[in-house]
Amino acid sequence: MSDVKPNPSLLRFAVASEGAALLLLVLVAVPLKRVFDMPVATKIMGLIHGLAFLFFLYALTEAVSARAILKRSCMRPGSKQ
Questions:
Q1: Is 76 among the domain residues?
Q2: Strand, coil or helix: what is 58?
Q3: Would you say residue 6 lies in a domain?
Q4: Given this model, what pLDDT does residue 8 score?
Q5: Residue 45 pLDDT
Q6: Total count of domains within the chain
Q7: From CA 27, how far away is CA 30, in angstroms rounded?
Q8: 41 φ, ψ to 5°?
Q9: 54 in a domain, yes or no?
Q10: What is the DSSP-derived secondary structure letter of residue 67?
Q11: In a 3-state reduction of DSSP, which class is residue 66?
């Protein structure tokens, strides 16, 4: 087994990035598409949101494999360590 050290700041950054991308998508890009007929906004923010989500999944996988968080805490909403 490899000696992987946990990096909680990576997971925190991934969570913040994903949350910010989702908020920008929903609160900025979708209204721009609907109100001002600018579909390019959702295409760009959708791509950024998708990449942020993939980065979040990577950081979560790394945290679980480094045993920085328990597997069961990833599956339960609102669970604490």
A1: no
A2: helix
A3: no
A4: 76
A5: 96
A6: 1
A7: 7
A8: -65, -45
A9: yes
A10: T
A11: coil
- pLDDT digits over 9-40, tens only? 888 999 999 999 999 999 999 999 999 999 99
Closest CA to 18 of 49, 64, 62: 49
Residue 80 placed within a domain: no
- As given in the structure block, the two tokens for residue 66 are 């480094």
d(CA 74, CA 4): 19
Give the Cα separation of 61 and 9 in Å (integer).
Answer: 14
What single-letter DSSP state applies at residue 77? Answer: T
Q: Give, to the nearest 10 degrees, the angle between helix 8-24 and helix 39-65.
A: 160
CA distance 11 to 81: 15
Please tell me whether residue 80 adopts helix, strand or coil conformation.
coil
N-to-C CA span, the chain: 24
